[in-house]
Structures
1.
Amino acid sequence: METHPALAIRSSVGVELWNSGSKVDYAPNPNFPRDESKFCRAIAFSGDGRFLAWANGTNVQICSSKDWKVIFSLPKPKTFYLKFSPSGKYLVLWELFMTTKENAEGTPNLNVYSTGDGNCIFSTIQKKNTDWEPHWSCDESILAFMVGGEAFFYETTEPNGFEKAAKKIGGARNGSISLSPYGTNPYVAFHVPGVKGSPSMCKIFKYPDIQAAQPIGCKSFFQADRVEMMWNKRSTGLILLTSTEVDATGASYYGKQALHFMSTRGDSFAVQLKKEGPIHAVEWNPNSTEFCVVYGFMPAKASFFNVKCDSTFDCDEGARNSIYYNPFGNLVILAGFGNLRGNVEVWDVAKKKIVTTLQAPDSTLLEWCQNGEMFVTATTAPRLRMSNGFKVWHYSGALLHETMWPNGQELLEVIWQTYPSGTFTEKPITNVKLEGIKSTQPQASTQAYKPPNARGINITPSRPSTATSDNRIPGVAKSGRKDRRNVRSANFAKNRNGDENDDASNNDDAAAQTNNAQSQRFRPISRDNAKKPQKPAQPEDPEKAKRIKAVNKKLNDISKLKGRREKGEHLELNQIQKIDSEASLIKELHDLKIA
């Protein structure tokens, strides 16, 4: 019997589950009662698909995929993020960290729950909402996370394993760790930022041998304020995407970027790219034998590399900034979203040949189905508030399903149901296009954009509508994502501008998923002519005041960039990405003020 994965959908009117299948089968699942809360912030499937969890602003609900009935609720109304451990044995929740006069230290805001009985088995303080996720070994026997420059490792299968860290390594302020996704004794990548002219360094250890003198690999590099670490599925190779906060040459708004490779055999290489410009996206093939990079000033270049970092194939340059491998790694999508037109190229990986191209304009989300044959694209709020909806495609280019969201409601997220490994098998790639349906949406204009002054139009500056003035969001390199799947409410722009009577349905909207992000992979919106924000509500909290000041500075920088864009100046993709982060900053500012 053929398996048809479900689609979980989060919107401004709640959470619902849809069946998938043939063209007539896409409809709400009658066994799943829709959660009609207007404040659903996050949804996630467990990796094996046994559970679906969501945060509705009152409780975190967990249901079983056997009958889609809620098996238990957690009274955690302030949950913003949630994620299952690899096998779904645990569910991790993150809340906004807050302090009070009575409790200056704050209370634990990261909590780990057992999905077996719903009990909380571990709690700690994790102040940052970036890189908040703990790290697990694939068998969930090791839990690790960074706190105050130290990495703590808990051996969860040992008696009282969650009560005391079994191992720790430290001395890395603003450092980071990453556990390999394969093996009961995983590899541990540990990044130590450079200080006072010394280089940054990444070391690889084999757990439990994580002492400073026991690395199996080491790579040093300059110009790396931040490092994104990406393991391949087999845990044989690690990609390091490094970046600086500021590029002294002015080539990139976000700073200088570079790509490095380390193997668990001790080898290391610098990945040589053939074109100047930003690195838009980097992705490992799930087969672990190659990775793809999209890079360079537009039109961007896409190159495939083997594990020796030799370039094996270069695509023709094109308007693209995103990479999405299907679960088997036999197909890969190269796409151009955000400030690009939404062109989608489906490639046969083995033949390095395009199977088909299609247009998915205004897409803010793309995710492959686990069967490796279908993918979903969606236009979601708060990135875009008009023409919200989702489409399901076959890799041959056929449109299998389309649902447009009703006016007055906002689609926030769409994710595929997951399944245990081995549920689906890889099928031969066909060049025959399946019969599909015709889209009801108008095609995007193919006319090149011209600024008003180039068209002889004199425009008096005015505040643009948030529904139409933003750029479409790209699927960017991991430094701009996975999260992974964060979404923010644009209506918080009203709060920052002092507007009253904000729509209650959006007032506590979506902080994020990650994701994944994969999803995951997009950010939001646009706002202009903002008044200066009010002073923080709790000036006695210096940490909060410092964060508010930093967020306001970023918003002012974005305002300047938008002014340049309105004058018709060309902006690089990295600058567009910074503009796209505005809604999440507005949301963060609002949360800080009301905390």
2.
Amino acid sequence: MGIQTYRKYIYYLKSTGICIVMMGGCWVLYQLRQITQILQSTVPTNVLNLEHAHAQYIYVDDPRFKDILNKTESLQSSVPKQHVAFSDAIMKWWKAVNHNMTYKLLHMAQHGNESERLRALYTLNSTKHLKDWHYQHIAQMLDARTAVSIARLPNVDLRFFLKPPYSHTKHKLHDVIERIHQLLLELSRLCEHTHPCLIQFLNKKFKDTYSDSMILDHDLTSLGLVVAPDVVWDQELLQNCVQALCHHSCLEEYSKDIADVGGLPVLMIIKKFFQNNINICILLAKIISNISLHSEYLEQFFQAGWIGTLVEWSQNSDIRLSAPASRALANLDMDENKDVKYPRRIYLLHPLNKIRGKIKMDVVFLHGLLGGVFVTWRQRDIDTSTLGVVDSYTIPDGIETVASLMDDQSPEFLKDLAYDFRKHEWDKIGQDFEIILDDCPQNSNAKSSGPFFHKGNDICTKKYEYDKQHRTQCWPKDWLPKDIPSLRVIGINYDTNLSMWTPSCPIDGIQTTMNERSAEYVKKLLTAGIGKRPMIWVCHSMGGLLVKQMLINEWKNGDKNNICKNTRGIVFYSTPHRGSRVAALKQTVQMLVWPSVEVQELREESPHLLELHQEFLDMLKQFPMEVVSFSETKSTLITALKVPFQFVTSNSADPGIGEFYEIAQDHLSICKPASRYSFLYQKLLSMIKHHVTPHEENKFSSIMELVSLSKRLF
């Protein structure tokens, strides 16, 4: 009984509370309405809508303006109304859809997973109908990571990237030199003055820098000594400063200091100052590529405007500029190259951009003594002394008689008629013939297998003519990707000297022996991802000895990096396996010339080279590799007196294993094919195809078998 009474009281209380709340709410709403009406009657609320544009009128109640107003109305009525065509409306709608899709693609490229990002980037790069302001808007929305990913797309539009900050600001020469001077001082301080070349440069060019460490600084004139003249602050001094900065950035830890002290904006100012100086731009590209090993500074690269500049440089026709710029972008691409970096002297020649296919093989090129990536692997220059007219269009017999009856015909008619006769005979023969390759070998061993010919059809002839007209500065970079796109081509650069008299930097390393160099470059190649897939070595002269030394060292260490296991073949271009005559100097001459370590190691019948070659043959027993060797047969004209000298004899160039060919070229041109149909190139190409395509052929044949089986069943 008591519980029911308690529940009644609770019900009454709830009902009363609800009524009170509802009545109070109604009263509050009524009061708000009253306050609003009072405010509207006292304050005009339309003054708060100042941002809305309203039509304003002037009422003219004067009969003198009546005619004028009527004329205005008639003029307005005479203006034809524009009707929007259906096609224009569809095009406007399609562009709007494209623009909206562009921003969605950008969002996906920034926040999607790896596959989504790649697809969005390719689609974004191929989007059309974008105006300049669309590109500017997208550039402002880009982050550093996405900007680098877009920068590595093939044929990317430069409008995707903002101009560097303060791009229109003009700097005075004195101010630029002062800024790079302060930068060099700070770099010397950070390395604790351990770089003697930098200290010497600052002392020589800016005498007041280390005056406290110089003795008799102010008393030179009293002692009768001449004081060095003041250095003029001109463009030459600025160029010298850039060279000093490039030299300082060669070591990885020193290049990091440049970014730490804010050197990237200073380099951009110098780039603006030397916009049209290709040599300074090459130095700047090398500095940037050295700093790019430290991807943690990606945001600083982006803020300083270097991403767009690197894209512009990577599209330059001069490979000396495009190669380091492309290497810098590859190092900064955190999406594609997570565990792969290209250190100094390691050049990525292909692919320079993102590719959708999979890389199946690495091809590594090493030059020889006094060579370089962009010197050794050039296309051979045309020998104009041997050029002449061969098999010219001759006029067949009897045409002169016909032409004498046609007085109104010009001599051009006879040439055209002769050409038509020749073409008719050519068509009757057909295209079932072959042409001997350029640089066909004069002699070869029993293991040689060609190819020695190429097809003579119209397609090959057109390619041959195209290669003659479009010469390449680096045939591994331009030819191999066209024939086998699934390759990664890498070039190695290293400095060599003929004499110890040549000055060298103490911090640049003393890796002059083959054993020291091989250890250095194995480390760099591992950083570039070598050893993870099949590979082929291509080497000229001393480069072949370095390759043998690297493989032997890895073999002795148990091949922990799988370099020997994954090596499929080696191509030697005039490699002196038993030494070279270039090091055959008498003791008296050696005292004067003071030959370098590289030259001393190339002595004929050197015990070290003979031992190296024997170990190489022993290594091949455990890790079989295809070996192809070329030997020069012509002497090389050296010095200004054109003295003939054969650097490598056939006996020294023959390793005694694999295929061996003697080519009628000298030491410098043995590695420079005349065209893509040169035997020197086609033999290398056939080796690479042999090791790349077997899996594809087996897979293709199995698919064809399934297709034929399905046809039989159904």
